[in-house]
Amino acid sequence: MLMAAVTALLFGPLLTGLVVYLLPSRRLRDIGPVVLAIGLLGPLWHLGTEVVGAGPLVLALGGHFAPLGIELHVDGLALAMLWLTGIVALAVNVYVSASLPVDAHFPATGFRALWLILWSGLNALFMAADLFNIYVMLELTALAAVSLVVVSRGPEAVSAATRYFLFALAGSLFYLLGVALVYGQTGLLSLRVLETSSWGGPVSLLALGLMTGGLAMKAALFPVHAWLPRAHAVAPSAASAALSALVAMAGAYLIIRLWLGPFAGHWPQALAQGMAALGTAGIVYGSIQALRQSRLKLVIAYSTVAQLGYLLLIFPIASLLAWQGVVYHALSHGLAKAAFFLAAGNIIHLLGNDRLTSLSRRDHRLAGSVMVMALSGISLSGLPPSGGFLGKWWLINAALESGQWWWALAAAAGGLLAAAYVFRVLRHALAEPHPDAARDAPIADNLPRRMFWPPMLLALGAVALGFAGQLLSPVIRIGLPTGVGG
Amino acid sequence: MSLYAAMPLWVVLSSMLASVIIFALGEDRRRMRTFINLAAAVIKLILVGIMLAGVARGDQFGVRFALAPGLEFALHADSLTMLLITLSAILWLVTTIYAIGYLEDSPNRARFFGFFSLCVAATMGVASAANLFTFFIFYELLTLSTWPLVVHRGTPKAMRAGSKYLAYTLSGGTVLLIGIIGLHVIAGPLDFVHGGFVTADMAPRSVLVALFVLMLAGTGVKAAFFPLHSWLPAAMVAPAPVSALLHAVAVVKVGIFGVARLVFDVYGLELTAALGMDHLLAGIAAFTILYGSVRALGAVNIKQRLAWSTVSQVSYIGLGIGIGGPLAIVGGLAHLVHQGLMKITLFFCAGNLSEIHEVKNVDQMDGIGWRMPWTMGAFTFAALGMIGVPPIAGFITKWYLGLGGATTGAWWVIGVLVASTLLNAAYFLPMLRRAWFVAPAGGHTDRREAPPSLLVPALVTVLLAVGSGFLAGMPMSPLQWVMLISERFLQ
After folding, report:
1. CA distance A467 to chain B (A)
2. Is B258 a domain residue?
3. pTM for this model (two decimals)
4. Do residue B174 and residue A413 have CB atoms under 8 angstroms apart?
5. ipTM
6. Pick among A396, A424, A463 to test the B interface (most B CBs inside 10 A)
7. CB-based contact B151 A385, cutoff 8 Å
8. Which of A182, B323, B364, B461 has CA atoms 20 to 30 A from the CA of B178?
9. What range does the domain containing B460 cover?
10. Residue B212 contacts by C-beta under 8 Å, 6 or more apart in sequence?
11. Are A469 and B27 an interchain contact pair (Cβ–Cβ within 8 Å)?
12. Could you read off the pLDDT of A317-345 as tens digits, one per residue?
């Protein structure tokens, strides 16, 4: 039963990507992924009850456990990320089912296939339990993600995607080098086995450095973020949502897994302080860049660069509270950022452009999307009541508890900076019409309900996370890595 | 948890629900929106009335559930809660009526009234929060819900004022957050306790002082303490009903209410005094009182003058808390209500002046008293009350503050009060002189009073202001209620 659930998550989207081609009508092809997304909530639920009931799961494909077979691993963190993927995917699928048919020039088939491959890849990545398997899944997701950027066509997309591709390629290379070093020294690939075996030394530090660098390129962590803003801004909004909420986060997720799992105790505290300093630099840089953009999707994309920085604050603190804070941050960022991008997609759908000045049109059809941006912006800024607030509270609490008040300041200041760029967007929406706002006539008359509700519900979900801490914090503590006291 | 005991939750939810419904209704359902607005305001007033009677009887109200391990969302109703909640419930009803009249036919009313209700919900939440965590949630919600009201007109000036408002309040909120979490680390649970839950042995003195200062600064932004005040005069670009609400019950009151909670229920009067923080608070408040009054003298725009007056007047409350001692606290807390009633009247009247006769500056007020006698009558009584002319509400405040200063040996307080009274007179009396005793310029003598929806709220609030002065000795008057509070705190 369990294996069936996992198989469905791994191969369901992939198979649907193939089957959807065979469906006779366009309408069915649009609905197919939605049905799948709803259907996959079942396996997710089953997996959830198993993990909550019996603790972290280790599954072996074909019954061969490590070091011989391929293992999959679902602990509280993986479960949380799988659920996040499932929910964002559901929203994206519903959204796409209405937005793709609207745009006659859009290569809908290509988009759908790539997105379904990406979805499978993400599920696999979050469950992957050995270094090589992670490499394979990284490649798969990167290829799909890069193609999703280029699918919107145009020279701008091609150049953004090329840059993304080069970064992803370099990232994979660095990562693979690191894996080779680990394998050369220990002969092991399984995260679980590595975590419990005694190894270390300068080689492990070098390997960690290479792998972290490689993953940072994929996650677009500052200072190797340069590909992200343009790629996420030119991609179709539904793809941007998945890329920012899930794909970039997946890179950071793996860094956290490596540092706190197999490499726990291998790194000196100074290195951890350095990582957090890089994270803080990313928060400041990303936010300042977000403040300087005149296009909505670029603001949101730079916001992702900033928000990813928080995740690195966990390393110098490395406590249970910090773990909760960071995981919660990842979850609420995922919901809020996906909502934000989909709302931006709605604005583009209505107005044909995403200039901030266009938001000042006195147009009541924009109100719902502005509300979505406000709600998700509250969570991104860590303002109550929202998941972002709870995550920030835990992070600051953890920093103060460990006596490292400067990281508390970093997290707090990051929230203020986020509020600055979020409210800059909202300012445009509430201000008197800008002279430029009337330049282009709206291109669509109305917003289909299937495009309005997914971002709205995601944004409300980000807010609702702020009320779910009691429920979720035990879950994200299941199977803690050794680095935070597991 | 019975439905009755959970009353604070219903009070908060009644306006929150109204807000959601108003947003969902959209712009065009005008009659329905008006109905929801008024119904929610009346229902809330009834709920608060029931709760007030209950608290007076000694009933316990409270509702709590965990949002996260060790972090509880908790509401309760103590006597201090009721002070702010009752004031807000009454003034919300009159301000809603005023706002409906004021914004007739202007755009974006759904947005306005949605956030208007949300803002009141946040105020109610701050008042009934039972711990610092819950307090903070509503404190920030208030910032978020008032911003759209401040920038409602959308003009460049309004947008700038709004950004200033956000920059101050969100920074203040962040400072407050660090203070609260710091306190959580050293003290654990954050539940308000009469007499304070922080003890001197929890942390070194310097840490306790630092956390107090952080939280005082965080709440002081909204209370408009010098030098954190300059958002308030800028925010007067908001529509008159918003200014009225901001200055009387919502933002500044929530700030000073936070200071009161910090001193009474977090650190406790004793520890506050032991750390020397009472002097800090009283000093800041005294300086702000004088500074705000001096700046009010120089303001030409009526609303701006009123805004500076608020900066000054709200600090009376801080002064009372800072001096400590039963009489000063009574004076300070009574002013929370008295200032609210008087200042809301003044803003209603200022709104009427500009709506009906385009009178926006002090030098345009010549002869306006005879052209709109009811409005200016209300204005006159409220202004005299602010100066402290007996027996209007403001006098009661100053009397008790002065007594409180004298009995605790802080004679300088009387000096501050005298100076401030003279300054109040210096900026209010010229307005009254122009209104009643100077002939209107340019022969404008047409007599045109504001329509009932704008006039009646002003008359109601001025009657309440005069009444709470005249009838200060009656049971359930604001003064008697704060005496009850101070007894409970000083047990």
Report:
1. 5
2. no
3. 0.93
4. yes
5. 0.92
6. A396
7. no
8. B323
9. 287-491
10. B179, B262, B267, B272, B275, B277
11. no
12. 999 999 999 999 999 999 999 999 999 99
